[in-house]
Amino acid sequence: MDASRKPLAMPQSYAAYAEKHELYELLQTLMEELCIRKPEDPLQYLVDKLELPADIVNVPKIIVNGPPVSGKYSLASLLSERLSTVHIVPQTLVEADDTNLGDEARQLLKEKKKIPADLWAKLILARTIRSDCQQRGWVISGYPRTKAEAFELQVIGVHPKHYLVLQVPNSTLQERCVGKHVDPRTGERYHKLYRVPSDPSVVARLVDVSTQTLEEFPRRVEEYRQNSPSVDEAFQPFLHVVNGDQPFQDISSEVFKIVPKRLRSDAPRTPRVVLFGEMGAGKSTQAAQIAERYGLVNLPSEILLQQAVVSGSAVGRAMKPFLDRNAAVPDELVMKVLKQRMTQLDCQAHGWILHGFPKTAAQAETLEAAGFMPDRVVYMHVPKMVTIRRLADRCYDPVTGERYHMGNNRPPKEIRERMKKHPHDDEDHIEMCLAKQAAQIADLADFYGERACVIDASLTKDKVLGALEGRIIFPRHTELEVEVAILEDLNY
């Protein structure tokens, strides 16, 4: 298509469909899997991967790390239990692995040699690709311990979605050394103060390893302090530092606020914004500022209709009689104008901010039926009396046509006597319009439901702009996440 002769149009439904089904994230995940796994038959591997249920593809993958006796094992056990994942303790893999990898690792330990980082990585990979880990996810505790181990994990393809680090001062670690116990039958670790087993029979067979821990403690802590900065740096995109110097219940509460969250997506999302609210809420002013500051396409519906009329197009000629007598333009004509503008490349590439339409739930439904799905909807609410004052105090100079406001933009003294007031700015007329708007806004708020948020547009322009920025440009989470505050009673 020659975009120089006719504006390039792209169906809005393409972007909405891709975001709804997270196609960008899916393709990114599949490409990562291919590059990491390097299957002999890439197409069959992709087919097998796509046949897995969505909740299996997005299973938890977590590493919990921290200094000795910081509680990383207990936290990993709790995460594994709550999330129904597999808890992987690297030290126990050597005993449990019945392959050549396990034999090699056991032989090294028998010879009192260290297991190299590449062998550890192979052991862990072999465990994570087993069916239970693939279907339920995994939590690894206490590993990696060095930069080399972190590097080998990454090279072989073991990538966490969350890397949790417990931060605990040495003084607290020293206190926790005393009271550490192990169940000789299961290898499960406990503490007489911080993690006590509920089963009396387990309590009876616990072995106190505090003495052994105290002997090794200074060296192990020093090794951790030296290696942790480089390990944390290796997992920086997934890193969450957690205060471990607090009761275990508080630690777990903090962690479970982190773990359910999805990582911020790198998908190229363009804001598709709808502003609605009472007359005089400042929608046009704020939309223009947001568009200019962040490069969105400003779509004031009334101006777009006027431009269509001036252009002399067929749809413009059809609308002219309605605009000339100040009557409502039929929705189908409005949608023709909007569709022509919103499918152009700049709206697709940079996003758009629409205001003045929709004004009713029926119009909102028509907009979405045409494929224009807003991903950010903001109700700019202004109390009735504030709206009346804003509009009733407006005036204009009949000589120059300049607009003024007797409250915040007063005309010069020498021309005040000739100021005129538009009939629509009469208080009675304003109240009549607000009464009509109230029902429409309530229906519109009900239509958008939890997709919409409310801001107080009676504040200063700067504060309203800040509130809009927080909900339009910097939404919390990968998807729009706003406080749901739709007003059931607009108090009109």
**Order of adjacent strands in the largest pleated sheet:** 2-3-1-4-8
**Uncertain regions spanning at least 5 consecutive residues:** 476-492
As a percent range, the share of helical residues equals 40-55%
Which percent range describes the beta-strand content? Answer: 5-15%
Query: If you average the pLDDT, what whole number results?
Result: 83
Number of helices: 23
Kindly state the number of beta strands: 15
Shape type: elongated
- The value of Rg in angstroms is 32 Å
Find the structural class using helix and strand composition.
alpha/beta
Biggest sheet record: 5 strands, parallel
Instruction: Give the N-to-C terminal Cα separation.
Output: 52 Å
Explain the overall architecture:
Helix 8 crosses helix 10 (147-156) and helix 10 (147-156) crosses helix 13 (210-234). This protein is 51% helix and 13% strand. It has helices at 12-20, 23-37, 42-50, 54-57, 72-83, 90-96, 100-110, 117-128, 131-136, 147-156, 170-177, 200-205, 210-234, 248-258, 283-294, 301-311, 314-324, 331-342, 345-350, 361-369, 384-392, 427-448, 461-472, and strands at residues 61-65, 86-88, 138-141, 162-167, 180-182, 189-191, 207-208, 239-243, 272-277, 297-300, 352-355, 376-381, 394-396, 403-405, 452-456. It has 492 residues and is an alpha/beta fold.
